[in-house]
Amino acid sequence: MISVEEAKNIILNSTQNFGVEEIPFINSVGRIVKEDIVADRDFPPFNRVSMDGIAIDFQSFKNGQRTFVIEGIQPAGSPQITLQSKENCIEVMTGAVLPNNCNTVIRYEDLEINNGFARVIPEGICDAQNVHPKGKDRKQGDVLIHKNKLISASEIGVFATVGKSKAKVSKLPKILIISTGDELVGVDEIPLEHQIRRSNVFTLVSLLERLNIPSETTHITDDKPILKSKIEGFLNEYDVLLFSGAVSKGKFDFLPEVFEELGVTKLFHKITQRPGKPFFYGKTETCNVFGFPGNPISTFVNCLVYFYPWYYNSVGLRVEEETAILTDNVIFKPNLSYFLQVKLSDKFGHLLATPITGNGSGDLASLVNADAFIVLPKEQNEFKKGENYPVIRYR
User: What is the pTM of this model?
Assistant: First the structure.
């Protein structure tokens, strides 16, 4: 049995490069960009008007002029025009290029316009006001989005702005989620007294959807020859297999034996943690195998604690650790790392974690009442109110 830290190190050293693919930029939200996106020109690409109003040469205002003849109009999206007389002005619209011989924009709210004349009302006009200078935001060639960044709606806007119609992103792993056990029936079935509905696979599907990873699911009964036959095919077809159940010490927990017989290299089996101690992790040359214990909380937390970092590391995404402050004392005497369910709140800028009482790793419904797991180290058995520990959010 190994520690949580040892298990994480093994997993992070076993990550997999899925390769790169090019997809339409509009379909890339939630993916990991695998190239630097650079500015193809200055941003903004011209001196940009940032308020509707008039454009003037500020020196005229500084010299005491307050009324200006309107020479013309500069709409957004039209070629740049030129102010012919520095004692005059040009009406301008937000987003338009600033006319030649102009350097200051006065908004309509500060003007009276009558019969082709614009009179400035306030005295507090500043040189270059309401002008967004060319290249102020970014210069041509600047990196706007760095490689290995998670793509969100803001990155989509940048792709469009620089004319990047296709984005290079990390390929997604091909994943199969497998449940085992004769006690499990379908969601739409009425279980007998000795049966329960399949739920863990759908929890895992949803946890992967949070990472924008599609997955497939299947169920295999507790029959070793059938398990072995089907898993042999899956190992050659998928990048990742996620199992829920059949990795503990029960007489029908055949998976560790099947993995060994099929040539899966066991990297560890059992971790000094609660919940999820029997967790199995191994691999072949082409497939990573995560064997989560069958209890619902165990499956849930192990996916967050181990599969998520494995995926992040595989695609090159850096994720910052988050911590929270305990709001109550906790006593946990077993010499195990403890993933304790907590409700999160914020007070004066500090993230607070309030422990949630559940009924063990089989209490699936308790997940609804919490937001995260707080990670309590096995070197302690008393955890004081006010102490700070890592948290793993799932909301």
Answer: 0.85
